[in-house]
Each structure stands twice: as structure tokens, then as C-alpha cells.
Amino acid sequence: MLKPCYKKEFIEAGCDEAGRGCYAGPVFAAAVILPAGFRHPSLNDSKQLSEKLRDELRPVIEKEAIAYAVAAVDNDEIDRINILRASFRAMHLALDQLNKKPELLLIDGNRFTPYQQIPHLCFIKGDGRFAAIAAASILAKTYRDEWMKQLHNEFPHYGWCNNKGYGTPEHQKAIEQHGLCKYHRKSFRILPLQAAIL
User: Fold this and answer.
1) Strands (DSSP E) along the chain, which ranges?
2) Which H helix or E strand runs over 176?
3) Long-range interactions of 157-164: CB distance < 8 A, separation 24+
4) CB 45 within 8 A of CB 128
5) How far apart are CA 91 and CA 71, in angstroms?
6) Containing H/E element for 91?
7) CA angle 186, 92, 116 (to 5 degrees)
8) Phi and psi at residue 26, in whole multiples of 5°?
9) Whole-model pTM?
């Protein structure tokens, strides 16, 4: 059972990212402030939910949230500053867009770069513990999946409509056959074939 909050007396924003381990595409992050006591029987860590259920929950979260925002950092910036910093930057960009200022940040993971003067707490597997982080994980995941499906239209041979840029056997085989494209993360040292860039 997800906890509705960490401290009732604070306005809490849950933050999570999606796409950190992918070979291609941006990393997305979301920040969500839920109303006190918000519950939904299906709300959970996005990785534990089917794509259909995530897509069903997204409009519910967007409608019920006090505030939410989603942001992305592209593969070029990931290559410049590294994926960890890019993940934190995406979270900061999402927090910048919130129309209500949180008093406490609940972060999925074990590290975070402080944001402004707002205190934060990191939770390993926090998306399976707190409702706001779970909601953020669903928004980040659904927005990123939608983005990768659009990129698939430009480079259909990588199968991003299915693998969303993750290093699946299908994706690896396509890289071996076609090389890397402009959306791949070159700093990830995916394959020795990186010299071939479409």
C-alpha cells in the first residue's frame, strides 16, 4: 500500500525519472503534488503496471493533482553532462514548471542535487512507497513512451515503438545492422560500431 505522504504538514512534490538506462532518446522527469489523502487502487510504481494501465492513470493524475509538470533532457545534453546529472536536471526543470511551490521533495533514488532551498528526501524504490512519487513515475514514463513512438516514425528500423530506446536484443541487432543515429547516446559506449552514425 502506497503512503499518501511523508509529512502531512508539508506540501510535498514527488519526483521521478524515466529512460535513464536507455540507449537512445531523452531522459524524462516529472514532479507531482497530490491532494492530501489521494488514493487510487491501481496507483503504483510505473514499472509494475501495464502500458494500458499507465495510460489510463495518466489523465486521472493530471486531473486530480494540485500541480504537475514533466520535463526532458535530450541525448546530446546527456552525452555532455552524463546521465545522472541529466536526470537531476530534468527533475529540476519539472520543478521549475510547477504552479505551486512545494515545501518538501520526495525523490526516487538514493541521490539528488538540491533544488533551490527546498529540503528533499531520497527513497530507494520510492515509486513503490509514496503516492506522489508513483504518480511522477507514471507521468514521466507515459510522456517518454509517447515521445519515443514519435521518434520511431523517423527511424522505424530501431523498433522504438516497442523497446522505447532500451537495449533490447531487437534494438541491439538494429544498431549492428544500421549503426547509431542522431538520437543515440554516444557516451553510453553501446557498441564498437559507434563510428557509423546516420
Assistant:
1) 12-18, 27-33, 67-73, 104-108, 120-123
2) helix 169-178
3) 158/24, 160/24, 160/25, 164/19, 164/22, 164/25
4) yes
5) 7
6) helix 83-97
7) 135
8) -75, 165
9) 0.94
Domain boundary assignment for the chain: 12-145
The CATH number of the domain covering residues in 12-145? 3.30.420.10
**Entry field: residues in the chain:** 198
Question: pLDDT band for position 197 (50/70/90)?
Answer: very low
Give me the pLDDT at residue 65, please: 98
Residue 113 has pLDDT above 80, yes or no: yes
Q: Residue 146 is placed in which grid cell? A: 509517447
Distance, CA of 38 to CA of 64 (rounded, Å): 8
Per-residue CA distances from 27 to 11, 31, 41, 160 (Å):
26, 14, 28, 14
By the 10 Å C-beta count (0-12 exposed, 13-18 middle, 19+ buried), 37 is classed as exposed
Integer Cα distance of 72 and 47 in angstroms: 19
CA-based nearest residue to 13, from 116, 107, 142, 111: 107
104 has pLDDT over 80: yes
Q: What residues have CB less than 8 Å from 101, skipping those under 6 apart? A: 11, 118
Q: What is the mean pLDDT of residues 165-173?
A: 94
What is each CA distance from 116 to 35, 56, 92, 128, 143, in whole angstroms?
23, 33, 9, 26, 25
